[in-house]
């Protein structure tokens, strides 16, 4: 069905708390028990996970959903992978290529294990630089080198890019398409509808402490919560433009450390 909704969920790491293995984030680190409950809710309500390559061929149908993970936290393999496999589900893992092998991140063996298990391994840039801040030569290097490294690890094509920090627009999307990517995902909250192909895919951020009622409202994109998410996103986007990405990130880090 060409007009079917396509919710794309955005996760990062799965951590019980700051001392868990991996790179904890006070906003984006979801408790593993909450993640398991969210997967079970999707199964109980008839949702079927799809990889982006499958949608390129057939497009979304009713109750189709894409699960994504950004950055390449070690919990992606150690926690997310077995929970997904136990339910016959799949996800796209957007890995920051230069993070591979760093403390708290996926190892080369982990990246290969995700691909061999039937998961998608895609690009989240080379260094997690905000692509919108880069010159054309730096942008090209980030896109090409991240793709090359991940394809060398997995022996599979990398066809999708998730914009680091959600920063990017027409120039970054056009560059990604030129360098061999077929899908570009951003962090704009929304539930994709007809005509999404050729544009950036919107995503629904799943955050720490989200209860199942909130999760359901966002997946179904109903009620006031989705509107609140959009308003918050646009307010923060205005702040990022006013301050610049670097100053905004410094302020965010300080606020989370309080």
Summarize this structure briefly.
By secondary structure, the chain is of the alpha/beta class. It is built from nine helices and eight strands.
Your description of this structure?
By secondary structure, the protein is an alpha/beta fold. The chain has one domain (8-223): TIM Barrel. Helix content is 43%, strand content 12%. Helix 3 links the parallel strand 3 (64-71) and strand 4 (92-95). Helix 1 (32-44) packs parallel to helix 3 and helix 8 (224-243) crosses helix 9. The N and C termini lie far apart (48 Å). The model has no long low-confidence stretch (mean pLDDT 91).
Q: Largest sheet, if any?
A: 6 strands, parallel
User: Regions with pLDDT < 50 over 5+ consecutive residues?
Assistant: none
Shape: globular
Structural class: alpha/beta
Determine the N-to-C terminus distance.
48 Å
Mean pLDDT: 91
CATH superfamily: Glycoside hydrolase/deacetylase
Helix-strand sequence: EHEHEHEHEHEHEEHHH
And the CATH topology? TIM Barrel
Identify the CATH architecture: Alpha-Beta Barrel
Instruction: Name the CATH class.
Output: Alpha Beta
Using only C-alpha atoms, the radius of gyration works out to 17 Å
- Compute the number of helices: 9
Number of individual domains: 1
**Strand coverage percent:** 5-15%
In quaternary terms, these chains amount to single chain
Number of strands: 8
Instruction: Summarize the amount of helix as a percent range.
Output: 40-55%
